[in-house]
């Protein structure tokens, strides 16, 4: 097994391992270390059936129950799918993951990681972009760091300020998804100790104690800073890729820039995280 970096600050590529076969503790520890240090772990050339994917991902943590059960795979509901072949009720095509966000930040304990495994990819396009929020935090001026240090973001299922509309939840899903949770705007990574900006344009409704006139421009300023190209890693998918990323210190977004007559279909699993501090 070989691990090598994919950019200056984010991403590590793993080759020479088949996660469908038993993995040694040393191999698992090396991959997990690379995940924590590099935030995006790309394991190449996998061909995992849903049950094998669950076993493989289970090496790195406990599965997090995803919020919208309409995307669950029937024979393996802990795994969801990401597809460009679904539509909103009004017939418009639904592109999951469009727009910068971190996954399920409206949970009390948001998922530490999201794993996608490519099943079917378009010939070109459909990259996933990542923004390294720890590097972005380090790049903030001191004055802005001091200003955001005590602030708490209010996260909901669907922010009224979001440019992207999510698929609505069924009534039974709504019962288990919290109405709103508070998370710090700056969180400390529980494993690396690095501080990172923690925001989510799709789910942040506001900042506790600030009115929108103050909160929204601040969130926009932070987002523009954090998603500038110098903090980004852009993942070009290859068949067989399994990508595990760290939601605690990244934003990500999908790109709907490919031929929509071609199917883009991936399995998605998330791993349980802890309460952001
Ligand atoms: Fe996402």
SSE diagram, text form:
Layout: E1 2-5, E2 12-15, H1 25-38, E3 40-43, H2 50-57, E4 72-73, E5 76-83, E6 113-120, E7 128-132, H3 133-138, H4 142-148, E8 152-155, H5 171-176, E9 181-184, E10 186-188, E11 195-197, E12 204-207, H6 212-226, E13 232-235, E14 242-246, E15 250-254, E16 265-271
Parallel strand pairs: 2-3
Antiparallel strand pairs: 1-2, 3-14, 4-5, 5-16, 6-14, 6-16, 7-13, 7-15, 8-9, 8-12, 10-11
Number of strands: 16
Q: What kind of sheet is the major sheet?
A: 8 strands, mixed
β content, as a range?
25-35%
Mean pLDDT across all amino acids: 95
Tell the overall outline. globular
Tell me the radius of gyration.
18 Å
Percent of residues in helices comes to 10-25%
Query: What is the rounded distance between the termini?
Result: 34 Å
Bound molecules: fe (ii) ion
Uncertain residue segments: none
How many DSSP helices?
A: 6
How are strands sequenced across the largest beta sheet? 1-2-3-14-6-16-5-4
**SS-based class:** alpha+beta
Along the chain, the helix and strand elements come as EEHEHEEEEHHEHEEEEHEEEE
Oligomerization state of this entry? single chain
């Amino acid at each position: 097994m070989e691990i090598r970096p994919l950019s200056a600050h984010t991403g590590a590529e793993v080759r020479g391992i088949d996660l469908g076969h038993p993995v040694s503790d040393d191999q698992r520890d090396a991959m997990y270390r690379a995940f924590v240090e590099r935030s995006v772990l790309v394991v190449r050339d996998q061909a995992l059936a849903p049950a094998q994917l669950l076993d493989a991902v289970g090496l790195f943590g406990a599965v997090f129950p995803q919020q919208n059960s309409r995307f669950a795979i029937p024979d393996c509901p802990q795994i969801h799918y990401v597809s460009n072949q679904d539509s909103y009720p009004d017939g418009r095509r639904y592109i999951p993951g469009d727009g910068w966000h971190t996954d399920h930040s409206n949970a009390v304990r948001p998922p530490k990681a999201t794993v996608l495994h490519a099943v079917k990819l378009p010939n070109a396009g459909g990259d996933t972009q990542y923004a390294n929020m720890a590097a972005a935090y380090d790049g903030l001026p001191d004055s802005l760091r001091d200003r955001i240090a005590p602030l708490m973001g209010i996260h909901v299922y669907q922010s009224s300020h979001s440019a992207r509309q999510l698929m609505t939840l069924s009534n039974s899903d709504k019962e288990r998804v919290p109405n709103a949770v508070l998370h710090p705007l700056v969180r400390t990574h529980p494993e690396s100790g690095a501080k990172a900006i923690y925001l989510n344009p799709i789910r942040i409704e506001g900042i506790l104690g600030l009115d929108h006139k103050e909160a929204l421009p601040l969130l926009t300023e932070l987002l523009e800073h954090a998603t500038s190209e110098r903090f980004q890693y852009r993942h070009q998918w290859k068949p067989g890729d399994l990508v595990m990323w760290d939601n605690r210190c990244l934003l990500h977004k999908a790109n709907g820039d490919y031929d929509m007559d071609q199917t883009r279909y991936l399995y998605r699993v998330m791993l349980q995280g802890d309460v952001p501090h």
